[in-house]
């Protein structure tokens, strides 16, 4: 077998480097109010750069995702480079890099949720909404996504809408949830006391601004979580009792 000859440089297809456009700054009014809000956030931290995560949520609340403009804004406020801000924004999956609908519907497809039906739910929603994971419905209501484990395995399979849990889902309940969101009905997560707000409003709350929805902070842990807590406590007590008994025997 003979190796293909490598074409001379002049014969190869040119490799074009796509340079991104310079971000367009926010309109002056938006810039002004964002600066004031950014200052409130930055002042909560001993080092300005520690405010990067909430600032990224703040800029996400403006456009529904983290744009080049948002990255440049965060960099300017914190004395960082655009590359440093980009490195953080692209590491965490809560920061979206493409336009997001009013409701970000994330289906957990990590191990436990997947075997309990998460894969089936994602497939059912994709068929029902006629979009693939990562896409947004044409009316801009729902962005469908798959999520990694959200530490809610005791309620598998779970769906999160704008980071609020919807526990023990089925393809049918997930379709009903999507229909209610698209119809503009009031929808409340399984563990929250307050109806969902939009993705942008959620981003603002995550930036550290008060959640003014009545009963928003009245959620309570469910029975599976409490059962796990009880079992851990009992196990810890039994280990302590065993250790006490061994040390007593050692003293004799
Ligand atoms: S695997 Fe889905 S929440 Fe843990």
UniProtKB/TrEMBL annotation:
The keyword DNA damage does not apply. Residues 208-252 are annotated as: Disordered. Its EC number is 1.6.5.11. Its cofactor is [2Fe-2S] cluster. It comes from the Bacteria. Keywords: 2Fe-2S, Iron, Iron-sulfur, Metal-binding, Oxidoreductase. InterPro entries: NuoE-like (IPR002023), NuoE_dom (IPR042128), NuoE_N (IPR041921), Thioredoxin-like_sf (IPR036249). Residues 235-252 have a biased composition (Polar residues). It is an enzyme of class 1 (oxidoreductase). Pfam families: 2Fe-2S_thioredx (PF01257). Residues 210-221 have a biased composition (Basic and acidic residues). Belongs to the complex I 24 kDa subunit family. This is NADH-quinone oxidoreductase subunit NuoE. It comes from Nocardia veterana. The gene is nuoE.
């Amino acid at each position: 077998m003979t190796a293909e000859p490598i074409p001379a440089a002049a014969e190869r297809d040119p490799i074009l480097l796509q340079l991104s456009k310079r971000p367009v700054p926010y309109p002056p009014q938006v810039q002004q109010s964002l600066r004031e809000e950014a200052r409130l956030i930055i002042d909560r931290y001993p080092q300005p750069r520690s405010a990067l995560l909430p600032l990224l949520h703040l800029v996400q609340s403006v456009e529904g995702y983290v744009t080049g403009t948002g990255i440049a804004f965060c960099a300017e406020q914190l004395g960082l480079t655009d590359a440093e801000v980009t490195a953080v924004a692209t590491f965490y999956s809560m920061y979206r890099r493409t336009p997001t609908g009013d409701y970000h519907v994330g289906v957990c497809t990590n191990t436990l949720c997947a075997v309990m039906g998460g894969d089936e739910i994602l497939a059912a929603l994709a068929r029902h909404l006629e979009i693939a994971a990562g896409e947004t419905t044409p009316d801009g209501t729902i962005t469908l996504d798959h999520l990694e484990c959200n530490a809610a395995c005791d309620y598998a399979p779970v769906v999160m809408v704008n980071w609020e849990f919807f526990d023990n889902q089925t393809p049918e309940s997930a379709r009903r949830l999507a229909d209610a969101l698209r119809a503009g009905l009031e929808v409340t997560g399984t563990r929250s006391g307050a109806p969902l707000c939009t993705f942008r409003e959620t981003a603002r709350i995550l930036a550290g601004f008060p959640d003014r929805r009545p009963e928003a902070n009245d959620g309570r842990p469910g029975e599976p979580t409490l059962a796990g807590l009880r079992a851990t406590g009992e196990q810890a007590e039994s280990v302590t009792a065993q250790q006490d008994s061994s040390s007593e025997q050692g003293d004799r």
